[in-house]
Write a structure and sequence with these properties.
heterodimer, A: Rossmann fold, four-stranded antiparallel β-sheet, 6 helices, 10 strands, B: alpha+beta, 2 domains, two-stranded antiparallel ribbon, 16% strand, elongated
Chain lengths: 227, 408
């Protein structure tokens, strides 16, 4: 594990408003550090705050209290435009429900993050095809999401996250909707990505995935139970 | 690179979601046809009514001073002259004295507002004649009489009264559609019976009386409209000060070059007339109408696209935001898709309505919308929809992606 600190989160608190007046404390004073090429497993039951923590670390949401430093800079003070740049250049996100765009083919879904960039179209296409080959999906490149199985959709989502070559990947229940065999395959792929230098942070309620992790953090009721 | 790639991909994706594409296409097609018809109608309104209402008006100084033949000579001279601007169908207002107390006047049925005095404003009861065989008459008691050639007056004139001119087996029947105050018209005499009829009926009655339409008639006035040749875009072709200058120039040209010295064609006391209806007021009304139509449809599009985008695109916006798309990139993507759908829908809608018009008119090409109407409709329908899309999506783009996912 590298001594370099990629992300340092301190005393994170996230409070949601539910309904008209009820306040939900989704995260309560959570702190952690993330190093390059490290795989961290955030594990805990539903409602423990692991997905919320991923969303805060990935810049998709802002904490109510606390700081998140990415390479020494506090992203909680960043503007919306800065956070967009952070998500675009530094971060890849894999959703539990994959969140592929329905009217794009598998290949186009993988390419989408690079459409606004200056990378030539031919290069974008080559990278997308290479990733689909790694995910063993080359024969499915022209299929739409609804024509793919859950495992295939998850692999497309992973390829989409990887095409930007992010420094850190956040995966929210990446095996949650998959059978155990496909789940193992996804985890092996994430492990390979991690070995190549990308930090991977996985939120899951599946304790059996701990074998892949360099470090496990248990969350319960929004609090850190074990590190 | 990224900018053009988003445009090319988004225009390709615009037609891929069949359900959404067909819905948008239908909306655009219906509104394009409707707006096209409206714009073309507004266009016609301006060119046929508004622009004809200015020009030079020449009125004879004394009764029986200008014959129909002399009037026709002046019309020919003016029509063949190079004046620097177009004259459009110079109208001679003729009259003929049928007997001591019976006189008929002519006017142009298709241009009721062309004459500054003889127009719908002077009608007190009923309406200005709008079809062949209808007549305008002065108010007042008319004695029952039979003229030498047989104009049979049955009763006091009222709207709806019919008069029949008969000669042997031939007859021409006219029906009173409106009554005017004779004092509104120069030289009226209460004990005379005057009929103001359209040109066609005027000639029929002359024929019945065996009179020559040129030699046996007189010209009481002439109206010379000037065709406004401005920007070439009718809705925005509002007359300017230059057009009024043209009117003044024309008056001077007629006086100097075309009014023969030996014939009294008339005075110019009423020259350079504009419409009795305030033209500027009408312009303002028209501008307001155009504005209301454009803004009204713009607002409708904002509303429709707000609903559609909220329904179909919120999840996609959240995904793109999560992947690091900027507001601008997402806007560009959505606007390109909407623009593509709008252009296709507009083309389909405009094409169908043109085909329908052709079919209904037995394939008469003149029923097609003028190109300028199509372009103006395009501006209203397609371009106005873009700010709507922009405004609605801007709100969605202002929140974090997770907020959108959570809302879903």
């Amino acid at each position: 594990m590298s001594a370099e600190k990629l992300i340092v989160a301190k005393n994170l608190v996230k409070i949601y408003k539910r309904g008209r007046s009820e306040m939900v404390r989704a995260l309560d004073n959570v702190s952690l550090e993330v190093h390059p090429a490290e795989m961290i497993l955030l594990y805990g039951p539903s409602g423990s705050g692991k997905s919320t923590l991923l969303q805060l670390l990935s810049g998709m949401d802002k904490p109510t209290e606390g700081t998140i430093e990415y390479r020494g800079q506090d992203i909680t003070t960043w503007s919306d435009a800065d956070l967009t740049k952070y998500r675009r250049d530094e971060v890849g996100f894999v959703f539990q429900s994959w969140e592929l765009i329905d009217h794009l083919t598998a290949l186009e879904n993988v390419e989408v993050p690079l459409y606004p960039t200056k990378i030539p179209s031919g290069e974008v296409r080559t990278k997308a095809i290479q990733l689909l080959r790694k995910m063993e999906l080359l024969d499915r490149e022209e299929h739409y999401p609804k024509e793919l199985s859950g495992g295939e959709q998850q692999r497309v989502a992973l390829a989409r996250a990887l095409i930007k070559e992010p420094k850190v990947i956040f995966a929210d229940e990446p095996t949650g909707n998959l059978d155990s065999e496909t789940g193992e395959m996804i985890m092996r792929m994430l492990k390979i990505v991690c070995r190549q230098g990308t930090a991977v942070i996985i939120a899951t309620h599946n304790e059996s995935l701990r074998k892949y992790a360099d470090r496990t953090i248990k969350l319960f009721d929004g609090k850190m139970a074990r590190n | 690179m990224g900018f053009f790639r988003i445009i090319s991909r988004s225009s390709k994706f615009a037609v891929r979601v069949k359900k959404r594409f067909i819905l948008l296409l239908l909306i655009y097609a219906i509104i394009a046809g409707f707006v096209g018809a409206l714009v073309d109608d507004l266009d016609s309104y301006q060119t046929s009514d508004l622009l004809d209402q200015r020009g030079v008006y020449i009125e004879q100084a004394e009764e029986f001073s200008v014959t129909g033949t002399q009037g026709s000579a002046l019309v020919s001279a003016l029509n063949s002259a190079t004046l620097g601007y177009s004259l459009d169908d110079i109208q001679m207002y003729k009259y003929a004295q049928l007997d001591n107390q019976l006189r008929i006047y002519s006017f142009d049925l298709s241009r009721p507002w062309l004459h500054p005095n003889l127009n719908p404003d002077i009608v007190k009861t009923g309406s200005f004649p709008s079809s062949v065989g209808e007549a305008l008459v002065p108010m007042g008691d008319i004695q029952k009489r039979n003229s030498t050639n047989g104009a049979v007056i049955e009763s006091t004139i009222a709207v709806g009264s019919e008069f029949t001119f008969t000669t042997g087996a031939n007859e021409v029947t006219i029906r009173v559609s409106g009554i005017m105050d004779p004092s509104d018209y120069v030289g009226s005499e209460n004990d005379d019976l005057w009929f103001f009829v359209d040109d066609s009926t005027f000639n029929d009655i002359l024929a019945l009386y065996g009179l020559d339409p040129e030699a046996d008639t007189f010209v009481h006035s002439m109206a010379i409209p000037i065709v406004i040749e401005g920007s070439g875009i009718p809705l925005f072709d509002i007359p300017t000060d230059k057009d009024y200058e043209n009117v003044a120039d024309l008056e001077q040209t007629i006086q100097q070059d075309y009014l023969p010295d030996d014939v009294t064609y008339g005075n110019f006391n009423k020259n350079a007339e504009t419409s009795p209806i305030d033209v500027k007021q009408k312009n303002r009304l028209q501008s307001l109408l155009t504005f209301v139509v454009a803004v009204g449809f713009g607002a409708l599009f904002v509303f429709l696209f707000g609903m559609l985008i909220a329904k179909f695109r919120k999840r996609e916006i959240a995904i793109l935001k999560a992947m690091g798309y900027t507001r601008g990139s997402i806007q560009l993507s959505l606007v390109t898709e909407i623009f593509t759908d709008a252009i296709i829908g507009f083309t389909v809608g405009m094409g169908l309505i043109q085909l329908a018009l052709l079919y209904m008119s037995d394939f008469e090409p003149s029923t097609l919308f003028r190109p300028v109407s199509v372009w103006i409709s395009f501006l209203i329908v397609v371009l106005m929809s873009l700010p709507g899309t922009f405004i609605i999506t801007w709100r969605s783009l202002g929140v974090s992606p997770m907020t959108i996912f959570r809302d879903k």
